[in-house]
Amino acid sequence: MSIDEDLVCDQDELHLDTDGSSDEFEPFVSPPSARPRRRFLGTKYHRYLLFFIVAGLDSTVFVLNLPLTRVYESIACYQYYSAHEPGRFSNPASIPEQECKIASVQQELARVKGIEFLFMMAPVRQRGEGVWTQVVMNNDNVTMQDADKSRATTFLQLTVAVLISQAISTPLASVLMAKHGTTLPIAFGYGLGLSVCFMCPFVPETIHLSTSKTADGEQPPGEAGTASLHATKQGRKARMRGLFASKGSSRVSVWLLSPAVLASLVILFVDSFNAATINIVVQYASKKLSIPISSVGSLVTIRAVVTIVIILVVVPHIGRRLEAKRGLDSHSRDLWLARITMSVCPLGFALLATGRSVAVIAAGMVLVAVSWACCNSLVRSIATAMVSPERISGLYGVVNVFQAVGALVGNPLLAELLAMDIKSGNDWISLPFGLAGVLSILSSAIIWAVRLPPTTAN
Question: Coiled-coil region(s) at which residues (predicted)?
């Protein structure tokens, strides 16, 4: 046999020795098994990302607060002088800020600030998107990962992240306004907000989709994204319908919640209403103390820094003392902390209403901020502990509705009260903070009347 014949025989043997069950399109070497994707769900990386997003969006609001207030004031001031003293000023930018502290201009500014919040909420009503929706959804996203005992701590950590952003963004806006006017800080604020929104797609889902699968047991890749989006939209609608769900439904119904949970919802509504005072405090302090708007940023910074120290040092110390001396469990400790911190809120509003110096107004802002931070964190945790685990997500939807309504009512109403107070010529300008103080007394009385069910306490 020749060499050529040997080669042909060898090739024939190679073809004949293959497995009859193999496919010509099947590779000889199997691909490596796909490694499971690493998901940061429930990890500290996921939580820190959400903290950063919420704090970044809040920074956007506070960076824009000072320059936009000054822009609104200058426009209202120019319109006033154009009607009463035509030709005195050529454009809004040429008017000295001190000339804009008259009652007519400040009254108009207060109304504009109240309407401003309604325009900020418009994208949420139309599309379910926007800054406030991102804050609300990420707030719930953070807390879905934690056990009951650590949920209040997570809420407080989120509040501290927001306060840190306020402590940084407000003086930054003041410096930019002092050196470059209002254009640069406004552009920076909107740029910051858009940049943070682009980070939201990196947040993984915290719930499993309940969509049906195909006959083969899996969804086609092209339909998975559509199903996810559809499930998200349907989930939002279901939460709204769940407010009035029947007894046989698995959704959360306001009418079927326990009195303690309903009391918590009322407290969060009042807290959100009173939190709207931060939107008028810049104009209020500038008018009452006769200082430039850019200088009011120092008050907001002092408020944020002192509140951070109190939340990180004082509140945990009180909590440890309550656990050691009274033998309280985590939920009972949270309830007592909420009672103590909310009791100082009326005093804070009293200082804001009667203060005539930077120190007194700053002290009032700190007391109100501490009460707001602890109320929002601790009362949410208490309400969560009193519902079954499968209803926590639905409860968050109800809480968000109550807080959104509180903000929608509080912002224009408090702004209108401020405008009425300025128009009356009252130097105290205390009407909006007086109303907030009365509501805080009511809220404090409710939290002292709340009793945890035995199953929750255990």
Answer: none
